[in-house]
Amino acid sequence: MQKVFYFVWLLIFSSSCKVQKSLQKEKEANLSSTASTVKTIEQQAKTFILEKPELFPAHVGISLFDSKTGNYLYNYQADKYFIPASNTKIFTCYAAMKNLGDSIVAFEYLPDDENIALRFTGDPSFLHPDFEDQRAFDFLKLNAPKITVVAPRYNATAFGNGWAWNDYDADYSPERSPMPIYGNLVYFGKNGNRITVTPKAFKDSLVIFSSTEDGRFAIDRDKDQNSFTVVKSNRVFNGTAIPFVVKKEMNQLMIPLLEDTLNRVLNYANAVAIDQPNWKKFYSQPTDSLLKIMMHRSDNFFAEQALLMVGNEKIGVMDDPKIIDTLLKSDMLGMPHKPRWVDGSGLSRYNMMTPQDFIWILNKMKQEQPWERIKTIFPTGNTGTLGGLYKGYENKIFAKTGTLTGHVALSGFIITNQGRELIFSIMVNAHQSAAGTIRKHLEQFLTTVINEY
Known about the structure:
By secondary structure, this protein is of the alpha+beta class. It is built from 10 helices and 16 strands. The strands form 4 sheets. The protein has a 5-stranded antiparallel sheet, sandwiched between helices. The chain is globular.
């Protein structure tokens, strides 16, 4: 009987050894394969990015991460800090996806038979031409006679820290505010020889110093006030959008603009008499409809207002430094390197982040949010700011671009032809070439990774 037991034990032991050897060989094969992959990616990074003459004077950081295994496939200066430009919107997008719920709060209000106290919350979709459905405006129009607008919980400046001062009249940098209206832009169009103005309240702010008959003119704005001037230009005028100056006190401009649109007089109060009233929320647009435009068009205004709205929801005040500090200590605690994060859009050159920070936040987003939601919000090949790039790679890449003079960034997700789900971040700072040339080099590298892995 002992011989039988010994024989059975010997068979089990022998079988266990074979399994362990097989597992060890499989592990060694996987390690060898990973090492080979890393070496090949390193060579491709050199070929398509690092050894390109246009990138010799630049600072470059690259990080490639396998989200399934949790391992980095390649890092090159990925722990160094870079100016991320509009890649900053990835931070804002994550914060909004996590904290804004499925719909945007247009305003908070206290309903009453005689009077409605109403407090705006920074919703940038209010009367914005991108949004046909204007539930918030319809509510205001219906209840205007009994509305009292209350000063918002707002502690932010019109411009972000480190923004370029001479972008004041550029359509990509409207001033921030607690009650945006029409995107905080004045839209000038042309109907025959007549210039159209929306909102119409700014019609009297337009001064015509040049003939408009030949159609060759432009419109400038004074730096410090809402004074718009028609000037001679070599180009044919086809319409333009110019930010208006947002006055500090809401009753100086924003409420009069709303009154002009409603054709109603509104009351205004600095506060409500009730201590800690039970404010109700009125919702306007699906959150993802705003985030999709923000990411596809790289809309700076939507990004700034989204961050302020996160502040209103999470800490009870629209204050960008405070909400950034709170997010870094809560939802974003644990990043590999503490970022210097100063605005929602990336317009500021004071932002400093590492490629590995973006890997971390994108991986966290992927773990917490449905993949279909991410795919809807992020541009894919040949769409949004990826238009003209990654043609044929639709649904293979989902990424956010970033561009400032001398700086190009791209971070996001790729799905390889073998089905591997990778996260990447590439930062290029201080280049002296055309941004389009840099983007093409990044495209060559990433499409090679998609094709070969």
